[in-house]
Amino acid sequence: MIQMLNRVSRFFNPLQSTTGAGQADIPQAFMHPGYSENMHAASGQKSPVSSREQSLTSSSQKTRVTSSEQSPDSSGGKSADPSAGKKSRMETRDLTVTYGTTIGVKEVSIPIYDKEVLALIGPSGCGKTTYLRALNRMHDLTRIAKVTGQVLLDGKDIYHKDVNPVNIRRRIGMVFQKPTPFPTMSIYDNVIAGLKLVGIRKKSLLDEVCERALTQAALFDEVKDRLKQPGSELSGGQQQRLSIARALAVDPEVLLMDEPTSSLDPQSTNRIEELIHTLKDHVTIVIVTHNMQQAARISDRTAFFYVGNLIEVGATNDLFTKPKQNQTEAYISGRFG
Amino acid sequence: MKTMLQRNIRDRIMESLLVLSTIIVLLPLVIIIAHVIIHGIGAISWDFFTQELGSPSRAMQGRPTGLIHTILGTLVVDSVALIIAIPIGLGAGIMLSEYPDHKLNPLLRIMNDTLNGMPAILKGLLAFVLIVKPMGTFSGLAGGVALSFVMLPIVARTTESALMSIPWSIREAGLAIGLPRWRVVLSAVMPAAKFGLVTGILIAFARAAGEAAPLLFTSFGNNYLPNHWLGMLLGPTDTLPQRLYSLAISPYTHWHDMGWAAAIVLLVFVILCFATARFLTRQKF
């Protein structure tokens, strides 16, 4: 059984062996010990997760665990909310977004804890992107979009009339589905755009930030000799990491990611997932993904959306192994969506 | 079989009609260029580009005459028009494209289209009321203002479409790193659209440079070269389209020939603008 799982895992993710060394570098704190344990246990039992998903998720988790030599925690099999005890960084209260008469999301209340990865999953058109964009006032640009309810950042409503959305977006960065390097700017200028264009001119500081952000985004080594070349000449995966570096350069406290890997090949996807694991050290991440395996791999907590409603939110592990709602179970076991 | 034949004939007829309309479209251009060059080339000389026109008797006495004051006047008046129309036109274009949610936007769109469709001579009249009357004299400045009214709506519309061609995601990316909206437009969107923007300005410029009607009672015309270029700005000034008209309705054959030559200069000027615009749009990255 295990052998077969390994073969399946290699089939779906041929890079596993080459990136194994990189994963060993990831500090223990970033692994979700109880998580893999549970997944293994589930493989023998009746489980809502489809067998293909199971083999994918469990095998990728397994590699991580083996590379970290089975930390003692992993035997505990704890399935409690991994964010328990963490303080809430952001929170939405009865957040409703409407487009004219269409409801995007309806009365969604989720606390987002400090330095966690929250994944938003659900079928297309379920409102997960709409919800994400409400978190840094991206809906301000769309006249017909109307946001009601509260989005709290450190206890303060970001939709309060005295709040300047520009300041909010400095603290809450965003990475989009498609890579969006500024077409006429060099790699260097792209990364530091958020600083340079607001008047920071000190070259030593900009150089430092550029290197730091590119390193964080795991792109520095690939581009360090051609920082002056146009950002649009990079490959798709590199452009996406450039977009992430640009978002990180302004040192956001929260990073929103809207299906950041959906247009990327498996290798680039893998790199960005590793990146999310490392970033969690100092940034709170909310990520929309339509890939449930990805949600399972990278997130601490998962929220399931369906036709504009939040169906369930909880520790990723719990949500995938013992969902409380029938709709969640139906979705993650592949019966719809 | 018969229907097949009928279809073939019908196809042929339709195709010939299309070819015919193409020829009809191209014909006036070819005729104008050929006619103007045949008639005007003889009047083009060194004097033509170095001397002022002077009184009709000057030509009749065989003294050197030319249109240097007209060419310089055209440059001054057109520069004034560009200086006014580029910033305001770009601003209006940015408003149309980047602030679709602003409450003034629909009004601006309607007014801009109306201004674009308004007869050019009425724009001259407006400049007459705004500039000539208070100044008490015809001037190159008034001519430039009149031409800027011709350019403005064109610059605004071409700017709008050039900016709209840049994906919306670029703007969101800019906003997402905490840049204010205007900064995103200036530093990320406009550089990406720069070829479209330049093309639009050149097309508007070529259109305005060929207008005679708005200049008739604004820059008015002048047979002599002022001592100083400020004289062109603040006093009656000659421009190519309006001089072309004046020469054409004059009763002197020598002046008629100069009119054709002026037409050549105007044609080359305008065609150069269009060619530059076309060339720039090809330089896509």
Q: Quick recap of the structure?
A:
The complex is a heterodimer of chains A (337) and B (285). Chain A has 337 residues and is of the alpha/beta class. Helices cover 42% and strands 20% of the residues of chain A.
Compile the SSE list and pairings.
The complex is a heterodimer of chains A (337) and B (285).
Chain A: H1 2-12, H2 16-25, H3 33-44, H4 51-67, E1 88-99, E2 102-113, E3 117-121, H5 128-134, E4 145-153, E5 156-157, H6 165-171, E6 172-175, H7 187-196, H8 203-216, H9 220-223, H10 236-249, E7 254-258, H11 266-279, E8 284-288, H12 292-298, E9 301-306, E10 309-315, H13 316-321, H14 326-332
Parallel strand pairs in A: 3-8, 3-9, 6-7, 7-8
Antiparallel strand pairs in A: 1-2, 1-4, 4-5, 9-10
Helix pairs in contact in A: 1-4, 2-4, 3-4, 4-12, 7-8, 7-10, 8-10, 10-11
Chain B: H1 2-40, H2 46-50, H3 56-60, H4 68-98, H5 105-117, H6 120-135, H7 140-164, H8 168-176, H9 181-192, H10 194-209, H11 229-234, H12 240-248, H13 253-282
